[in-house]
Amino acid sequence: MSSIDTARERSGQVRFWNDPVKRGLALQAGLIAFLLLVVWAAWSNMMANMSARGLVFGWDYLSRPASFAIGESLISFATTDSYGRALVVGLLNTIRIAVVGIILTTILGIALGVMRLSSNPLLARLVSGYVEVVRNTPLLLQLFLWYAIINSLPGPRQAVHFGPGMYLSNRGMKVPWIEWSPTLWPVIAALAAGLVGILALRRRLIRKRFETGDAPPLWPFALGLLLVPPFIALAVQGFPTTFSVPELQGFNFTGGIELSPEFAALLTGLVLYTAAFVAEIVRGGIQSVYKGQWEAARALGLSSGQLMRLVILPQALRVIIPPMTSQFLNLTKNSSLAVAIGYPDLVHISNTTMNQTGRAVEAILVFASIYLTMSLLTSAAMNWYNAKVAIRER
Amino acid sequence: MNAPLPNVMAGPLAGARRISFVRGETLPQSPPPDDVRLSVTKRVVRTYFGTPGNAAITLACVLILAWLLPPLLNWAFLKATWTGNANACREAGGACWAFIREKFWFSVFGLYPFELRWRPATVLVIFAALVAVSAQRRFWSIKLVYAWVGTLVLMLALMGGSVLGVPVPGLAPVPTRLWGGWLVTIFLAVFGMALAYPIGIVLALGRRSERPIVRFVCVCWIEFIRGVPLISLLFIATFIVPLFMPTGVELDRLVRAQIAFVMFAAAYMAEVFRGGLQAIPKGQYEGADSIGLNYGQKMRLIVLPQALKITIPAQVNTFIGLFKDTTLVLIIGIFDFFTTLRSSLGDANWLGFATEAYVYAASVYFVCCYAMSKYSQRLEASLNEGQRR
Asked: What pTM, to 2 d.p., does this model score?
């Protein structure tokens, strides 16, 4: 640096555009001003445009009666109920498809991922073919295909009977379901007590293994604790009939629980699509564990079950869980494609609402913020998990 | 290997105390590995029926294939109808590929005026040629970027007869509501990616900026777009963006959908680029600082060339995702390839051939996406060649 520069600097004569601090402040002030201008212009244009069309921004429409019917709902809904309640119905339907979908995707995805690593080339090739086909075609197309397939099934009278009380027809799927009654409360309590017992026993067995180097396996006790208390609770009450089994009456089924064709198509499509991605994640996670870890575990004489449970999975899960969560989030976001095949999810209900009331801005704002909240909560949980399982480097 | 090993016991140690962990005699030779020893048949039998569990797996796979493949082949080839009308198809009972033949050009061009179809056809040819050139690494240079910009403008001019509202002499204007088919899909995906690229770089740099407000704005932008489903962005583009415009100004519907795709792709690309920026060793940043480069020079000359290169496979994957997601415009009623094809399902002469249409569409998407993903895997391997140890 020349002496002139330093002299200038000392005397505070640096031009402000050459001063990094001032330049940064100016840049940021400019950015804020620009954004405010854009927002203000958009907002005032929107107000002008809306009043020109006779619309007012507001949330009053939520309490007005929605005069449309909803095909399936977890809570009671009549056409005289409000738009707000319709929105809750949509949200519950979204949660329902997401929860069921995530559970099934996890099971199927892990199974496929492990099968892809099978030493049997036929199985590995079959699974890899499935994964490639599913991952490289659009989800929307797959949803339409499943919807078309379900609609081409025979009617209820010729329904496919694939298990006790389980029917598949073009009206969807019918399965038996537990009928709710107060006699179920003791059963639930017994189940919870069993779970607490399993946790306590597990701690004891681990402590015993530390002390003596040996302990009986947990699973026979766990199975017993899980099944026996609810069974006793049922037996004491004299086995009240609590199952509702679907039966064909006239042209349709009564009893049981119904999975509508839309729900079934959406669920099948989402699960098969997301499971292909999960399978790849699981495969990558297992392969990421060093070969030496496998060999060391075998050299110690661990059985193949112990090898997986004690050595490979704890290390693989660290790699698997973060991308897996983002796949679950994708599944939830992709469930918004329900609008294309007519399953009444959050977006579908919002779409109907804005078609009827013209409140596009409000309706989109509501469902976008619900999805955003879910995403942000999930990524916060993920950050917490990552920090927890990160390898502690010293 | 039959030469006798020097025997320790015969040497100076002979007669000394025997060491319990040192072997005193040569081991018998191990048999050669199975690959060499066993005949092909035996190896196959071992691979597929080595253990009872393995045999059961093989059997189950064969059963599944035997259950799935014959009806599928029967439907798709043996009983299929390749020419003729819908009645011929219904009589044969198999797949009706005649329907796809009938609708093929419609699925390429959509409702584009028949006598002007040479224009989208030229666009397709130019586009295919450029893709073929770009796929080869020896053509990668700044000239290729200019070629892409020029081609995109040319594509716009040929398709619409005007570029950004300026009419091109000699070409009749064709409004975007008459565009359709493959062309719209290609436009949405390629323009979406091309415009998202620079925006993504700016967002990624902004997210790693030292200026808190710049960083905050970029983080909010990226997280909002990644946190909501693409459908919300398409809805915003369709229903809310027109309200933001001054009275009397109207944006074309396709342009609005395109904006949604650009925003969407830019947020995802920004995260890809951020990964690349984070992967560049700190020494590169410090080295650039120490030779006196300013921020712009440092990024342009040192950091970005490396960050963009190492993220190329991830960029291709993002593009594959974007390409598949273009099908979502069906929901807002824009006629891309899939929507165009679906609209031909309503043809009264050809009712009931939805499955054929879906299979055709699925194979087109599959061929494109699979080729891209294989290409990105090959590229990843060849880009890593210099780094391999």
From this structure: 0.85
